[in-house]
Amino acid sequence: MKTIHQIIREIQFFDPAIRAFDAHDLPQSVRAYLHNKYSMDARLTDEEQQLVETSFEHFADNLREAFQDDPRPDATRFYLFDDLSLYVKTNAGPELWADAQVFVVERILPRMRLTRLEADLMREIGMDDQVSEVRDDFFSSFAHVLHRDCGIPHCDAREHWNAFSRQLSDSACESIVLGGGESGRAEGLRFASEYSVTNA
Length: 200
Fold this sequence. Notes:
With about 200 residues, the protein is of the alpha+beta class. It has helices at about 5-15, 30-40, 45-55, 100-110, 115-125, 130-150, 155-165, 170-175, 180-200; strands at about 65, 75-80, 85-90, 95. It has a four-stranded antiparallel sheet, sandwiched between helices. A hairpin with a 2-residue loop joins β3 (about 85-90) and β4 (about 95). The longest helix is centred in the C-terminal third of the chain and has 23 residues, at about 130-150.
């Protein structure tokens, strides 16, 4: 009879999602993934499936928070576990991370813009300051365009944004602000074009 570690190593041969992990020291996200996917997988014998099922916790047992902002079945979802490991479910396949903060630093922050889903995850793992920095980039760029093209003082930019975005839902407004500097420039130019027509 194979041990669970031998079974894991065999699974690692054909499943790249778990290949980087030490079979003797698996984070909760990987343990839940293995239980969910391989406790009834035809590539394993009945005995091996049973061992996987009894060796690893159910998906929900150590789940701290699940994040989604799109109900479509192929939409990206984040599953954060109690040990702050992360399971990212995408239509391109699963990604498993031992540390959610590493995922954020390596995959999200270099883009300098966020989705609401990403911002929710970051707030949950104590990265509120980084979310605020992206929002600040939006307002800085928005204010720069308003000052350059409309002569509006930088300090008045947020007030003008609040009035300009009043017709948007809270979620739509948040999505635009989380777009960072690039979104701020685009919204600033849109504001400036309407401002020039109104004040012509």
